[in-house]
Amino acid sequence: MMPPHRFQLLAVLAFGVAMLFIENQIQKLEESRAKLERVIARHEVAEVEQRHSDDVRWDSSHPVNKDDMVIIYNRVPKTASTSFTNIAYDLCGKNQFHVLHINTTKNNPVMSLQDQVRFVRNVTSWREMKPGFYHGHVAYLDFSKYGVRGKPMYINVVRDPIERLVSYYYFLRFGDDYRPGLRRRKQGDKKTFDECVSSGGSDCAPEKLWLQIPFFCGHHSECWNAGSRWALEQAKYNLVNEYLLVGVTEELEDFIMLLEAALPRFFKGATELYRTGKKSHLRKTTEKKAPNKETIAKLQQSDIWKIENEFYEFALEQFQFVRAHAVREKDGELYVLAQSFFYEKIYPKVN
After folding, report:
1. I want to staple 210 with a disulfide (CB 3.0 to 4.6 A). Which of 4, 40, 201, 226 is the partner?
2. How does the average pLDDT of the chain come out, rounded?
3. What is the DSSP string of 73-95?
4. Is there a contact between 177 and 282 (Cβ–Cβ < 8 Å)?
C-alpha cells in the first residue's frame, strides 16, 4: 500500500494541476467574452450609424455631403513644404480629393479683410472642391470669426529658425533644383550667409527670423511685431487648439506617417510614396553653406531668435508627445498603433 504522506502529496499536486487548468479555461472564457462584447458593440455602432445616416441623408437646404472635409496647410517658406505638397498632388487622383494652391499677390501672407471674407466663403461653400486640400504661404485665419458653419482642419510644419533662414537666404540667390532655370530675386549676390551676418546685412538680420510665429499667430497686427511675446503666446495657443498636427522638417517622414494614420481619406499611401517616390525629396536649395559657430552664436544673442526658438521647441515637444502616443518602435522601425478603444453598453438596444 502507498504511504499516507505520498498519497496526500499526489492529491495536492493533482489538485494544483486541476486548479491551473480551470484558471486557464476561465481566462480563455473571459477573453472570448471580451472579444464577443467588442464584436457586438461594433455591430451595434454600425447599425446606429446607418440609421443616423438614413435619417440625415437630406436636410432642409441641401444634401448632406459626407465627403466635405477641408484641410488647410498654411505652409511656412523653406520648411520642406514643397516636398510635402508634392505628395498631396501625387495622391489626389488616387484618393479622390482636390488640391488647390493659394497664390497671393507678391506672396503676401496677410490677406485684406475683404479677401479674408471671400476666402472663408470659398472654402466653406465651394462644394465642387470638397474634399479639398488648400496650401499656400498665408497666415493662420480663424474661420469662427466669420459666422460660417464648419471649420477646416489646419496642419503645418516648422523648422529650426536659423536653418530655415539660411536655406531661404541661399534660395533667394541660387534657387533650387525644382526650377533651376528660374531667376531669383537676389541672383548674382555671391556673399555667403556668414559674410552677411558679419557685415550686418539686412537679408540675414534677426528680424528675418520672425516668420514662423506670425504664420501661426495670424492676422492680428501684433503678430507681425518682431519679438512680441504676445504673438508667441497666441501662436502657441493656435498650434495646440486650432491645428490637427504640426510636424518638424527634421522628422518629416514621421509627420507624414501620423497624417496617414489619422486621415487616410487624404493620405493613404503617403508614407510609402515619401520613402520611394521620385518627387518627395524634389526641392533642395542650391549652393547652401552651413553657417559657422560664430555666426550662429551672434544670431542666438538676439531676443527675436530666443522667442522664435522657444516656439520651435514648443512645437517640437508637442509633436514628439503626439508621436509617442501614436506609434511604437520595433527593430528600428516605427509602427502606428491600432485602435485601442471600443464602445460598449450602448442603449437603447437595437432590435
Report:
1. 226
2. 86
3. E-PPTTSSHHHHHHHHHHHHHHH
4. yes
Cα 286 from chain centre: 27
Alpha-carbon span 46 to 142, nearest angstrom: 34
Question: Residue 8: pLDDT band by 50, 70, 90 thresholds?
Answer: confident
The DSSP 8-state label assigned to residue 184 in this structure reads P
Using a pLDDT cut of 90, give the percent of the chain over it.
62
Cell of 248: 518638424
pLDDT tens digits for 298-336? 999 999 999 999 999 999 999 999 999 998 878 777 788
Catalytically annotated residue among 101, 135, 220, 281: 135
Q: Which of 137, 219, 281, 325 is catalytic?
A: 137
Q: C-alpha angle with apex 337: 335 to 343, nearest 5 degrees?
A: 165
Instruction: For residues 197 and 58, give the distance between their C-alpha atoms in angstroms, rounded to a whole number.
Output: 62
Active site residue 220: no
pLDDT digits over 38-95, tens only?
A: 676 666 556 655 655 554 443 444 444 458 999 999 999 999 999 999 999 999 999 9
Q: For residue 142, give the nearest of 154, 132, 129, 133 by alpha carbon.
A: 154
Q: b/e string for 57-96 if b means 16 or more Cβ within 10 A?
A: eeeeeeeeeeeebbbbbbbbbbbbbbbbbbbbebbbeebe
Give one word for 150, left, alpha or beta, with left for phi > 0 and alpha for psi -120 to 50. Answer: left
Query: Model pTM?
Result: 0.79
CA dihedral 289, 214, 325, 34 (to 10 degrees): -140
Tell me the H-state helices in the chain.
4-55, 81-95, 113-125, 161-174, 193-199, 212-217, 229-242, 252-262, 264-267, 270-276, 293-300, 303-324
Please tell me the distance from the alpha carbon of residue 140 to that of residue 347, in angstroms, as a whole number: 42
Q: List Cα–Cα distances, 86 to 54, 136, 189, 277, in angstroms.
A: 38, 13, 30, 10
SS3 70: strand
Summarised one tens digit per residue, pLDDT across range 176-197 is 655 555 544 566 578 999 999 9
Q: For residue 125, what is its C-alpha cell?
A: 461653400
